[in-house]
Design a protein that fits this description.
Elements (H helix, E strand, L loop, with lengths): L2 H10 E7 L3 E10 L2 E11 L8 H8 L9 E6 L4 E9 L6 H9 L10 E10 L3 E10 H13 L3 E7 H12 L6 E8 L3 E8 L2 E9 L19 H23 L3 E7 L6 H9 L3 E2 L18 H11 L9 H5 L5 H33 L1 H8 L9 H38 L4 E11 L4 E12 L8 H10 L1 H4 L5 E11 L2 E10 L1
């Protein structure tokens, strides 16, 4: 695979895998000007046997090296998840994690050192913080991460499903601070029930219905998914209990109920009237138009693919895995190219302004105006003066154009020759063709070592030296400084290259 394809995978493409008890969903997407463009959404039933298990499905979907994604966002199964909410006194940020580890101990069924966990402050006052805490057995998280690593896929995002659901609620109602209930149907007989308050999950549970109410895979189609009315006799009691519990514990009114995964029907209006609250379905405003249908049957999957390309809600992937993700370098590269564009734009603008100013005020330009009345009857000394003025003015304009072309040419060449895993941090140049002074250029930059598509300082030096446009007006180029450093646990090589 070439560097361009690898860079696209790292910085612009996302893949999500949602694993449930009976099926697995896979989605692929990429960044686009309007948001996120879905490329494919697929659902696979899981059964016994190597071909019908998770391993067999992934091998079929990602059968060639080009199809294997760089990273994947995957869920923590609900039956492996611990969700806790509690309050602690307001303390300095640097002491927060230690305080939470101490405070959460009384809320856990096992020692915290056996868990991989994450937490968020969802509400804060002058005296207290409200904390939401998610954890899973470290053994399960490590096994999940190791499995994808063996597939040569980086499991850079591992997220709890309740947070994925609550994030979509907040995206659909950004201003909402109240409480709501979310019921998501999954084949063939499971309902994920989540209580959400202040844009964060308050509780989450799975309801298993003893009778299959959904389609079997053989005859599955979009219309065969059950309606809310078909499931209502089995879940009504649990829904009502959950609404009352959420109202009591959150201290506020439960404003609405969200549903997903059910076929649409008139039953929703009837049940809404019975509950005395609106029943709504989710919108997915972050996806662009076109591509596969954003069906709410795939709700957790769609949120995972969003978080594979954006900032995750709460990532509990192993630290060594998330740190090895090249995603963070994207922002360094973006800063470099934005900075490069600003430098070019400012350079062009200032040279244009200076040139116009010089043309207005330089005496040589005034000479042209003074001798603008030259004609065949003018005396020889006037013609000679006019000729001298024109030659000097042409030389002056040529010098301006040379200066303008010089830096623009070098910046364009640098953006083409510096590889993806290296970047330029600063440039220093001088060039005065009119005064006969030699040109000089100093390039300071860095290389991210050990990453796919990385390179060496010597290779960059060779590429610059071999480029005709880069070397124009220079006699030689040399490496004047190089040093390896560790930054945030990553090895970075800093360098300085001088052109003279």
């Amino acid at each position: 695979m070439n560097i361009i394809q690898e860079a696209k995978k790292i910085f612009f493409e996302g893949t999500a895998v949602y694993i449930s008890a009976d099926f697995m969903d896979i989605a692929e997407a990429h960044l686009s000007p309007g948001g996120i463009a879905l490329v494919s959404i697929q659902r696979f039933p899981l059964a016994k046997g190597p071909e019908n298990g998770i391993d067999g499905v992934l091998d079929r979907v990602f059968s060639t090296e080009d199809q294997i994604p760089y990273r994947v966002a995957v869920n923590v199964k609900n039956d492996q998840l611990i969700l806790r909410r509690f309050s602690i006194r307001e303390i300095p940020e640097k002491e927060l994690e230690q305080a939470i580890v101490f405070a959460v101990g009384q809320h856990l069924p096992c020692p915290i050192d056996t868990l991989t966990y994450g937490f968020k402050t969802y509400r804060k006052t002058s005296n207290y913080r409200e904390i939401i805490f998610f954890a899973a057995d470290t053994k399960n998280i490590n096994e999940l991460a190791s499995y994808f690593m063996r597939k040569h896929i980086l499991p850079a995002v591992i997220e709890p499903v309740p947070l994925l659901l609550s994030k979509l609620v907040s995206l659909n109602d950004p201003a909402g601070e109240g409480a709501c209930i979310l019921a998501h149907y999954e084949p063939h007989n499971k309902i994920i029930l989540c209580g959400i308050a202040n844009k964060h999950p308050y509780f989450s549970r799975e309801i298993t219905i003893s009778t299959d109410i959904g389609p079997r895979w053989k005859d599955e189609d979009k219309e065969a998914y059950p309606t809310l009315g078909a499931a209502w006799p089995y879940i009504e009691e649990e829904i009502v209990k959950s609404i009352n519990y959420l109202r009591k514990e959150s201290g506020g009114r439960v404003e609405k109920m969200y549903i997903s995964g059910f076929s649409r029907s008139g039953d929703e209006a009837r049940i809404s009237k019975e509950l005395n609250m609106p029943i709504e379905r989710h919108r997915f405003p972050f996806f662009t138009k076109g591509g596969p249908d954003k069906d709410d049957r795939y709700l957790p999957l769609l949120m995972l693919v969003l978080d594979s390309l954006k900032k995750p809600c709460l990532n509990i992937a192993p630290v060594e895995v998330s740190r090895s993700d090249m995603w963070g370098i994207k922002f360094v590269l973006l800063k470099f190219f934005i900075g490069l564009g600003v430098i070019i734009a400012l350079h062009m603008a200032f040279l244009g302004i200076n040139a116009r100013s010089a043309l207005k005020t330089d005496p040589r330009m005034m000479d042209i105006e003074n001798y603008g009345i030259i004609n065949p009857s003018s005396p020889k000394e006037s013609v000679d003066e006019y000729k001298k003025s024109v030659i000097e003015s042409a030389s002056f304009a040529g010098c301006i154009l040379a200066k303008k072309r010089f830096l623009t040419q070098k910046l364009t060449s640098l953006s083409r020759l510096i590889p993806p895993m290296a970047w330029v941090e600063s440039l220093t140049f001088s060039y005065n063709a009119e005064a006969g002074k030699p040109a000089s250029l100093t390039v300071k930059g860095a290389i991210f070592e050990g990453a796919p598509g990385s390179t060496s300082v010597n290779k960059i030096l060779e590429a610059l030296e071999a480029d005709k446009d880069m070397m124009e007006a220079f006699k030689n180029v040399s490496l004047s400084y190089v040093e390896k450093k560790i930054t945030s646990g990553r090895e970075v090589t800093e360098f300085e290259i001088s052109f003279k």
